[in-house]
Amino acid sequence: MQSDHPITVNDPGRLLTLTYVVSLSIIAILSLVVHFMLDSVIAEQNDTGKIVNVSGQQRMLSQRASLFAVDYLLSGSEKSQRLSIAAIEKMKQNHQFLLSEHFEALEKGEPSPLSETLLNLYFYFPSDVDNKIKVFEEQIKAVLTQEAGAAMTLNSTKSLKFLQLAESDLLIPLHNIVGQYEKESREKVDELRHAQNIVLGIIILTILIEAFFIFRPMVAKVSRFAEKLQRDANFDFLSGLLNRRAFQIVAQQALAYSQRYKRPLSVVMLDIDFFKRINDSYGHEVGDKAIKHVAKILKMSSRNADCVARIGGEEFVLLLPDTDRAGAFKLADKLRDRISNNPLDVDGKFIDITVSGGVSFVMDEHNSIETALSQADDALYKAKQGGRNNVQLA
């Protein structure tokens, strides 16, 4: 039952005409895509060159500001004072330019355009460049306001704290930022070039196909499209299980069969315990892995005749033909135990996952599967109230 497609695509022939028209235009469209991709490569290289240049200036400006500040302390030169201030101001302007898109995105409530690596370099320990530039600026300006020319001032640890930043604490992270910008630039350009080559290859392939195999490729394309529609209509993209809509269709068919031939039919609902805590503690990516992990165990532990579906965020349902209440409870508890004893392995770190379950038996008087689902959901609620990681009967 799990492999059935309750929803089918009828009369795909009307798509044939549209596919034929599209195929006549595809070469021109792909040619335009190649053109725009080439423009994107050029624009990306120009933008990257500017960013890399500006970020590279930061290293030089930090050294320039600190050297002129030291010279001011030693000689009292007003020129060195001005040059140091100019360097630090330019460094501040460059920093604002490099992070302008980041702060604009935050103001709009949008995700930062910076990569995770750059975010770590700019805002998090140990690099924390954003904060260190502010500290560096404050220390430089504080030094430049001191009375210059005194040897004791030069030997003052407090006065020369900025040198530690300029020599390593700030310089090394700035160097790493330049390297990261260069790395990400190469990756973006390589991706665009790779995509451009792929599209160019598609153009050549399309010319050959349209020259020698017009009809058969169109039919194959329609077939693939119909298959994709069937898949998307019936299956949950994350877990690979049936989705709620497809489950209801299969379940209603199973209910009609059960009532007609007087065969037992049971429903089991399972819900991952403390799923929000998993997302909050480990991130949504791990949460998705937890859903896939549970789905895999359910699929591997069920019979071919059983129907397994994901009908909610962390909620699963099993439809068990030819299974009475006791058998359904036994299977649900076995699944609960199997999930509990098979923690999720995330890069060598094991995360315990448990589920709570509710079991209901489909009665003859049930007109729809929704009644049995509602009863199983009530039993699931009791299992949650009973401490979780247990199964309750409706």
UniProtKB/TrEMBL annotation:
Gene3D superfamilies from the UniProt entry: 3.30.70.270
SUPFAM superfamilies: Nucleotide cyclase
GO molecular function: diguanylate cyclase activity
GO cellular component assignments: membrane
InterPro entries noted in UniProt: Diguanylate_Cyclase, GGDEF_dom, NarX-like_N, Nucleotide_cyclase, Rev_trsase/Diguanyl_cyclase
Signal peptide start and end residues: none
Highest taxon above the source species: Bacteria
SMART domains attached to this UniProt entry: GGDEF
Membrane topology annotation: Multi-pass membrane protein
Record key words, sorted: Membrane, Transmembrane, Transmembrane helix
Flavoprotein recorded as keyword: no
Start and end residues of each GGDEF domain: 263-394
Reaction(s) catalysed (UniProt annotation): 2 GTP = 3',3'-c-di-GMP + 2 diphosphate
Membrane-spanning intervals of the chain: 20-38, 198-215
Statement: the UniProt record of this protein carries the keyword S-adenosyl-L-methionine: no
Subcellular location: Membrane
Predominant place of localization: membrane
EC number: 2.7.7.65
Protein name: diguanylate cyclase
Organism: Alteromonas portus
